[in-house]
Specification:
Length: about 425
């Protein structure tokens, strides 16, 4: 990950690139992407038929490809893309393709520090994962839900291990799927395997599985919980002790289970997306205490505020003392912090961003087709044609805004006291 302390935190606006000039230079310019520090803006550009390149701050990569898609900056600032050469696909990092080539690649995943890059790959109509240009030694006839471990050193996925034709329903019901970690499968097979999760130390894998058409549970390292349920959602590991929690449906209601035991007394119409605080001392989840009413529950206790349409993007502050989310009622979005909704509403709001030093909160928002940033329920005075998520300085006294206005991309640092 880029060292945020070394970024340019001088107050002011600095123009980086004029995208209007790109549109005059190339046949077309696709959606732009920004480096974490805001120093680079990049986009896929078309040069001619079946000739694509990537433009970074006005300069193109040296190599030209048949096709390019899924352009993304890694957390460490490297620029990646999925590229096709002579009908074969691979990953290009800062314009340099991996040595291994495949029939197809998709779903780029990054470790939090950006050092490790993984993708799902298809070769000769079989599937596996590739990590840092090294594919699994074993491939499978089907693969879904690719996952990268928190430290970026291991990959996992749900895989098919028994082939069957469309009409062979009995083989499907006998179990044809399992989970694979670094290409090594569990010994047991299931009717279905969905999302997988890997522990912080990379030694344990959990997955949501189905034993029969009606019996669902969680499996950890190939061993299922003893209890089965009417349905389950994606498992989550505790960041410290490695225990596994998952939302489960029992007796027509949703509750939260940990290592096969129900841990929250209260049951809900729906419960999903559990999130731990950084130190693991608190556990939050999106819940519906009543039909059509959405909120956040912390350690089983729901907020008093509810939303009629949905609530999403649950975020703990770095200290774990606060929690925020965005909610929607009747088509209008707002931000809720510790059970209190902001007064301002928006046409759209994005994932909340907490200050690393104090519990200030900034959110990218949209009103009337223009974008700006909201800070502690106050609105920044300037609107932009495009805006990316705000970034706090290490001391929390400044915010980096990465913006496009009139076709020009700028990097702007503002003091939080000015909002």
């Amino acid at each position: 990950m880029q060292e945020i302390n070394n970024w340019d935190w001088d107050i002011g606006n600095r123009e980086i690139a004029d995208i209007n000039q790109w549109k005059q230079t190339f046949n077309w310019v696709e959606e732009p992407y920004l480096s974490p520090d805001g120093e680079k803006i990049a986009a896929i550009v078309n040069l001619a038929e079946s000739e694509f390149n990537v433009c970074v701050n006005g300069q193109t990569w040296q190599s030209i490809f048949d096709k390019i898609w899924y352009l993304r900056f890694a957390p460490d600032g490297r620029l990646t893309a999925l590229v096709s050469e002579m009908g074969e696909w691979t990953v290009a990092v800062d314009g340099i393709p991996w040595e291994n080539k495949f029939g197809y690649v998709w779903n780029t995943l990054f470790s939090p520090d950006g050092r490790h890059i993984a993708v799902a790959v298809q070769q000769d109509m079989t599937y596996c994962m590739a990590l840092d240009d090294v594919p699994w030694s074993q491939t499978f006839p089907n693969m879904t839900n690719p996952t990268l471990s928190p430290d970026g050193t291991k990959t996992a996925a749900s895989v098919q291990v028994v082939e069957f034709a469309e009409g062979e329903i009995h083989k499907f019901q006998q179990g044809a799927f399992t989970a694979a970690l670094d290409g090594k499968t569990w010994d047991c097979q299931y009717v279905n395997v969905w999302h997988t999760a890997i522990s912080a130390d990379g030694q344990t894998m959990a997955a949501e599985v189905r034993h029969s058409l009606t019996d669902y549970t969680i499996a950890v390292n190939g061993r299922s919980w003893e209890k089965t349920f009417g349905c389950v959602w994606e498992p989550v590991f505790h960041p410290q002790n490695g225990s596994v929690v998952a939302p489960v449906r029992a007796n027509g209601k949703w509750c939260l289970a940990c290592d096969d035991q129900i841990i929250w007394d209260r049951k809900f119409f729906q419960l999903w997306h559990p999130v731990y605080s950084p130190d693991g001392s608190k556990l939050a989840a999106i819940v519906a205490p009543k039909y059509g009413k959405w909120t956040i529950a912390i350690d089983g206790k729901p907020w008093p505020v509810t939303f009629g349409d949905l609530i999403t993007d649950v975020v703990f502050s770095p200290t774990g003392n606060q929690i925020a989310a965005i909610g929607n009622t009747n088509g209008k979005w707002t931000v809720a912090v510790d059970g209190l909704a902001w007064k301002n509403t928006f046409d759209m709001a994005w994932r909340p961003v907490f200050s690393p030093a104090i519990n200030d909160l900034a959110v990218k928002v949209e009103r009337n087709g223009k974008y700006t940033v909201a800070f502690n329920d106050r609105i920044w005075q300037t609107e932009y044609d495009a805006l990316w998520d705000p970034v706090f300085s290490p001391a929390g006294d400044k915010i980096l805004l990465r913006t496009v206005q009139n076709g020009k991309y700028s990097r702007e640092v503002i003091p939080v006291k000015s909002i």
